[in-house]
Amino acid sequence: MEPITFQELLNNPAGKSTSYLYSRKNISEELTRKYFELLKTKEFHFNVYLEDNKILYHIKVPSESVSGILYDVCIECQDEISNTKASLLSNNVKIYSNSPSFIFNGYAYVADRREILIDWLKDKLSRASYENPPDIRNPVYVLGFEKSLFFACMFIKENSYYNLENVNLIKSSKANIKKGIDTFNNKFSQYNESKNKDREKKKIKVVKKVIKNNKVVSRKTSMISAKSMKKTSAMRSMKSMKSIRRNKKL
């Protein structure tokens, strides 16, 4: 087992012994910026459960790019909590997320290999996601910065929810907690459906904009034509008047 603490999820999820994420400070700073940008337009939802004397954070993290999608991110503390004032930053944790990047970047596989994937939530994922090595997407088998996990940790940290005095602990069971957590397959279907709807909305906006612009152009063209006709008519009148005057002189 290669444990990970809550603080390490934010600072260096790859582990102390790796230099793979050499630019981790830059990555962390960029993700922090994106987190605060996300807060301006979208809401996080969360519950904190006490299950068998263990603390489980369940954070619903909104998607940056797709409307209406909330990823289920779970962080389970492995050390028993005997004092509700205790800080959880140094607590060893296990993790779960149904975000596509957690699956497709091979992080579910790496987490399971390091024994930090929440065991009783593995049935919410496909077996292939944590059993098949991600030789193409993640050939070094490293747990990098995963956006949904990072955002969830930031949400807990920035609101001081690591201090248990600041949360409403809900006593529950694994079975009840699981009811509120979606499977990856369901979440991915929702993601694709919402993404397609967003694309259609964008297409409609583009078409409406084109139609509006065409109307404006058509209106301007009509105005120009009307002005040209008036100008032409005025010029003809002037020529006619000049012709009459000449004829009078003759």
Summarize the structure.
By secondary structure, the protein is an alpha+beta fold.
Would you spell out the secondary-structure blueprint of this structure?
Blueprint: H1 6-11, H2 24-39, E1 45-51, E2 54-62, E3 70-77, E4 93-97, H3 100-104, H4 107-113, H5 127-131, H6 147-158, E5 169-171, H7 174-179, H8 184-249
Parallel strand pairs: 1-5
Antiparallel strand pairs: 1-2, 2-3, 3-4
Task: Describe the protein's architecture and organization.
It is a single chain. With 250 residues, this protein is α+β, with helices and mostly antiparallel strands. The chain folds into 2 domains: 6-182, no CATH class; 197-250. Helix content is 49%, strand content 13%. The protein is built from 8 helices and 5 strands, in the order ααββββααααβαα. It has a 5-stranded mixed β-sheet. A hairpin with a 7-residue loop joins β2 (54-62) and β3 (70-77). The protein is elongated and about 105 Å long.
Descriptive tags:
250 residues, 8 helices, alpha+beta
Shape: elongated
Please count the helical segments.
Answer: 8
Strand-and-helix sequence, N→C?
HHEEEEHHHHEHH
- The fraction of residues assigned to DSSP E strands is 5-15%
> Gyration radius, to the nearest Å?
31 Å
Largest sheet: 5 strands, mixed
Structural class: alpha+beta
Number of β-strand runs: 5
* Residue runs with pLDDT of under 50 for 5 or more positions: none
Binned, the helix content reads 40-55%
Instruction: Give the termini distance in whole angstroms.
Output: 115 Å
**Average residue pLDDT:** 85
Query: What order do the strands of the largest sheet run in, or round the barrel if closed?
Result: 4-3-2-1-5
Domain count, please report it: 2
